[in-house]
Structure to design on (149 residues):
């Protein structure tokens, strides 16, 4: 059947996009309800977090869980404004704004999902520098305490 492969490919794309959309709904639910147990289910064991201030990525579910649950506490007036899904459903970009220590910032979360709807790559970009510096100071203290244990 000459059309079986494209049909199968399109079906896979739709299934991946649907799975990712469900995961993003869970992500928003987690933030709205402050239920961090949802995050545990959303993170793949092999997840990688790429910080806007650290050169080396953080690898593994435990450290990424720590970072994300702490940054949520550091951000004040955190709001998502827009979201973009890639056609294949594997990647989502979420645009946000927040305040940290009286400094306003804007940023994006670039999130990649596996076919089970789990986060496998999470990269953050933030501007302006003053907001990023305030975030780096707050998170640096928390990460130093985490690494000391």
């Amino acid at each position: 059947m000459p059309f079986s492969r494209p049909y199968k490919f399109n079906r896979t794309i739709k299934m991946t996009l649907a799975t990712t959309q469900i995961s993003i709904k869970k992500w928003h639910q987690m933030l709205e309800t402050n239920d961090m147990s949802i995050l545990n289910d959303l993170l793949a064991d092999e997840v990688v977090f790429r910080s806007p201030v650290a050169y080396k990525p953080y690898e593994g579910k435990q450290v990424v869980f720590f970072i994300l649950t702490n940054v949520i506490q550091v951000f004040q007036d955190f709001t998502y404004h827009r979201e973009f899904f890639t056609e294949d459903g594997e990647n989502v970009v979420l645009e946000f704004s927040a305040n940290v220590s009286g400094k306003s910032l804007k940023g994006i979360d670039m999130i990649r999902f596996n076919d089970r709807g789990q986060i496998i790559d999470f990269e953050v970009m933030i501007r302006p520098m003053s907001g990023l510096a305030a975030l780096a100071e707050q998170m640096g203290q928390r990460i130093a305490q985490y690494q000391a244990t």
